[in-house]
Amino acid sequence: MPLITERVRENADKCKMYVDRILMGINKSNVLDSTNVLSSETEGALKGLLQALAKAAPYTADFKKVYGKNPYDYFLDKFKPNNKW
Length: 85
Known about the structure:
Layout: H1 6-26, H2 40-55, H3 60-67, H4 71-76
């Protein structure tokens, strides 16, 4: 288990805010919502864009220490479709 200091937690929060702002900017019209119908090309392009921006996020190493996942995986978990049946 990695050592999590106050500075590491602050850096992880900065990374979380960065990626969250990106997602909210892209998702203004609920494009990532599981009920929205997107073509597979558009969905792939959006996920690729999100992945590239999440990899460029500052302090990703500290984010992974605190939350146990990469920022991309952490944030896209809430946009995965739920089994409604």
